[in-house]
Design a protein that fits this description.
The complex is a heterodimer of chains A (about 220) and B (about 400). By secondary structure, chain A is of the alpha/beta class. Chain A has helices at about 50-55, 80-90, 105-115, 120-130, 145-160, 175-190; strands at about 5-15, 20-30, 35-40, 65-70, 70, 90, 165-170, 195-200, 210-215, 220-225. Helix content of chain A is about 30%, strand content about 30%. A six-stranded mixed sheet of chain A has the order 6-7-8-3-9-10. In chain A, strands 2-1-4-5 form a four-stranded antiparallel sheet. Chain B is about 55% helix and about 15% strand. By secondary structure, chain B is of the alpha+beta class. Chain B folds into two domains: about 5-50 and about 260-400, no CATH class; about 85-245, no CATH class. The structure holds adenosine-5'-triphosphate (ATP) and magnesium ion (MG).
Chain lengths: ~220, ~400
């Protein structure tokens, strides 16, 4: 699945004042190719998360269109867009994203149950959790996890519906080196299987897994190398 | 089970404090709604019952009745006095123009002394002409009241032997009457011949006889009149008041409207109170809902990331609210039934107004309505809160702290 940005930008207002605005993402043309790992690096506050959220369909761009397989994604009604995201886009957001009413296993399975019978995905969920070294914590409530454990849980959750697009915002931020390598090689594998993978990262180690690297600087995206 | 219901139940279980708070608030709302409506309806019932029992346009009592307890007292609180007009005065009243039907009653208070079983008000009426007591009695007792028989109000308890003693003589209890919620429930009814018999015994036994100079055989305590067509109630009442000096004609309608004004005032007050408590609880409910749901912005954002639609989030919030509100509303109604029902006697005493609890079907309907309204209030609030959150962009909600 190909993801295409045509002239996308996003404006924010400082302190909610209409007069004091700036572009967190400047007008951007960008393509996320299939079967490849694309990485975006950049300093803190440069607009990476803003851009990744637009690509995930979670934040509307001020200008421009997001085309997924040629379809203007933001013109779809909410119901359709949500179902599409559930099925095809695996998102690992920045920050902690566990549902505290659910156990680790239930958290991972939640996307599978939303529009279908997640029961059949239970073995996949357990497999993903053991890959993330979380199998023992299956039945623990997610608010009892450490930051790194939560992160790994959200990676397993993003992969439960075998999405064709993966968008991960600093997925290895709070992980140790070994786990970082584990996660990145898993994403690499998904790309090799045909997925379009986008990773926002600070880690230098990550770069060796990338097919193409972009740099975000004050909202301006440019290709590296 | 759908995803939405499954996760709603888990949310309720995993957040007991939040759940309990909403549950209690809805309980309060349902409780005030149901109890308030119950009391108001009971008051209205009481008045209606009272109005239909009375059935007279004019009540004529002797002037000497002043200060001895008025007709209002007789009908409302069962307090009567021993006051009598002569047979001559009754004839004068009866010959007034514009009377369609007329009937007389004879009041006698039993003494506390050993000659009587209890101190109650005895009301003698004339079954041949009566239109005020008979229709009500016939709901419980179809036969004619024989000489020596009495019919007792529902609050006169005991006397398993079926006998009751007044002024040294036993009388047979023929029937117990249905509840009216008024003072009528505390009185005893019999025919004229029997009450006059009792009066003669009283005259003999009491040191100071209440029948000073009045012939018991022809004495009358109150005359009830229905006005004929073509005459106004005022005309006839004025006619009696001007021409017959020893009696006083009171318009029953004005008595009823006095009571109903008091009742309307009270029920309006209760209504306002209930509305106030209800509105207050509703406002608190809305505030609590908004506060609680604000804490859930991140949770909703996470669900959106996983692909939940706005509709699905509303469904989750709606299901949670439905479960908690239904439980709270049911508990509130059961609680008010448990509290109000046994207390209705003391409520009645406190208000000093006719108070007649509605029947089971009305109670059920009331319960259903209170339930539906409480549920509705909670659900609407929940859905508005859900909508308020989901109209934000997920990308912005995600930045907020959990
Ligand atoms: N809702 C908002 N309102 C106003 N400004 C915002 C909002 N969201 C982000 N910004 C600003 O937009 C800029 C880009 O933010 P963004 O989160 O995209 O940066 P980032 O590159 O992901 O940084 P980091 O590496 O620290 O995660 C920042 O200057 C931030 O302060
Ligand atoms: Mg970021």
């Amino acid at each position: 699945m190909k993801l295409l940005c045509e002239g996308i930008s996003r404006r924010f207002f400082r302190n909610g004042k209409n007069t004091n605005f700036f572009n967190a993402v400047e007008k951007t043309f960008f393509e996320l190719p299939e079967g490849a790992v694309t990485e975006i690096v950049g300093r803190s506050g440069s607009g990476k998360t803003t851009f990744a959220n637009i690509l995930s369909g979670l934040l509307t761009p001020t200008e421009g269109v997001l085309l997924i397989d040629g379809v203007d994604f933001f013109s779809l009604p909410d119901e359709k867009r949500s179902q599409f995201r559930n099925k095809n886009i695996g998102i690992v957001p920045q920050g902690q994203t566990g549902l505290s009413s659910l156990t680790v296993l239930e958290n991972v399975l939640a996307p599978a149950f939303m529009y279908g019978d997640g029961k059949e995905k239970e073995s996949l969920a357990k497999e993903l959790l053991s890959q993330m070294d979380l199998f023992e914590l299956c039945d623990v409530y997610s608010n009892e996890l450490s930051g790194g454990e939560l992160r790994r849980m959200s990676i397993a959750r993003a992969l439960i519906n075998s999405p064709k697009i993966i968008i991960a915002d600093e997925p290895t931020g709070d992980l140790d080196d070994d786990t970082t390598r584990l996660v990145l090689s898993l994403f690499r594998k998904k790309a090799d299987e045909g997925a379009s993978v986008l990773i926002v990262t600070h880690e230098h180690d990550a770069l060796q897994y990338a097919d193409q690297i972009y740099r975000m600087e004050k909202g301006v995206l440019s290709k590296e190398g | 089970m759908s995803f939405a219901s499954g996760i709603s139940i888990k949310n309720i279980k995993r957040k007991p404090f939040r759940s309990l708070l909403l549950f209690s608030l809805v309980l309060l709302i349902a409780f005030t709604l149901f109890s308030g409506a119950f009391v108001i309806i009971s008051l209205r019932n009481g008045l209606e019952c009272y109005q239909s029992r009375l059935g007279a346009d004019i009540v004529v009592i002797p002037s000497s009745a002043k200060g001895h307890g008025s007709v209002d007292d007789i009908l409302l609180s069962g307090i009567t006095g021993n006051y009598y007009m002569s047979g001559k005065d009754f004839e004068k009243v009866a010959s007034t123009e514009g009377i369609a039907s007329i009937t007389r009653q004879f009041f006698l208070t039993s003494a506390k002394a050993s000659c009587c079983s209890a101190r109650v008000q005895i009301i003698g009426f004339d079954p041949k002409t009566d239109f005020s007591i008979q229709p009500w009695i016939s709901e419980s007792y179809k036969n004619e009241i024989e000489d020596g028989d009495v019919v007792v109000g529902c609050n006169i308890n005991g006397y398993d032997s079926g006998l009751i003693t007044f002024y040294g003589q036993e009388y047979r209890i023929a029937a117990r009457l249905e509840k009216t919620g008024t003072g009528l429930d505390n009185a005893i009814y019999t025919n004229m011949a029997t009450v006059r018999q009792m009066a003669k015994n009283a005259d003999r036994l009491l040191e100071t006889s209440p029948f000073q100079g009045v012939d018991i055989e022809t004495a009358t305590s109150a005359v009830l009149i229905k006005v004929a067509e073509g005459y106004t109630i005022e005309e006839v009442a004025d006619d009696i008041n001007i021409h017959i000096t020893k009696v006083e004609a009171k318009m029953a309608k004005s008595m009823i409207s006095d009571i109903s004004e008091g009742l309307l005032g009270t029920s309006r007050m209760i209504g306002i109170l209930v509305a106030l408590i209800w509105a207050l609880a509703l406002i608190i409910l809305i505030i609590v809902f908004v506060l609680l749901s604000n804490e859930r912005r991140k949770e909703f954002a996470i669900l959106r990331v996983m692909g939940a639609s706005q509709k699905m989030l509303s469904r989750i919030m709606g299901t949670e609210a439905a479960i908690l509100c239904a439980a709270g509303a049911a508990a509130g109604i059961v609680l008010s039934l448990l509290i109000i029902y046994p207390l209705s006697a003391s409520i009645k005493d406190m208000l000093g107004l006719p108070f007649l609890s509605p029947g089971i079907p009305v109670i059920l309907l009331l319960a259903l309505l209170s339930f539906a309204l409480s549920l509705f209030a909670g659900m609407i609030t929940a859905l508005i809160c859900a909508r308020r959150i989901t109209k934000n962009e997920t990308g912005l909600l995600l930045r907020e702290d959990a």
